[in-house]
Amino acid sequence: MSERNLFLRFIGTGLELIVSGFLAILYTETQNTGRGFDPNPVFWKAFIIIHVALLILIPLLAKGRTLGMLVTNLTIHSNSGKPPNILQIFLRAVLGFGPVILTQGMWYWVSFVTGLMGSKGRGWSELISYTTIKWKEPPLE
């Protein structure tokens, strides 16, 4: 189970949601004029836009790693053991996280179940981009 890194991936996803929510709260507060302001739709629009930006832009800039992977010290490798090439990074960012965005997060659970059932623990974004998530530095045992 430790080779799959499922716990760290789950923690990383939670951290991404918390960061997106915090940034959306900050944006919502800057839009408050005080008169007849309804913060709920502003918050959800900001949250969705910020989360989409984090899911697409950060993997393109950080060699396929998401914000959660950067925080939890996970990295991504090609199935051949080499660092991912630009096509794999693009596939992971767009086709890997695109369905999550289009289904409003429900595809994340499909990916999580795929990771649980597979022998290597690879989720949807790893399957589509021929990559594997590993520890950046293996833990001491």
From TrEMBL:
Transmembrane spans: 7-27, 42-62, 89-110
Predominant place of localization = membrane
Membrane topology term reads:
Multi-pass membrane protein
Write down the superkingdom of origin.
Bacteria
Q: Which InterPro entries match?
A: RDD
Q: Which Pfam families match?
A: RDD (PF06271)
Q: Where in the cell is it found?
A: Membrane
Q: Name one GO cellular component term.
A: membrane
Coiled coil spans: none
Mind telling me what this protein is named? RDD domain-containing protein
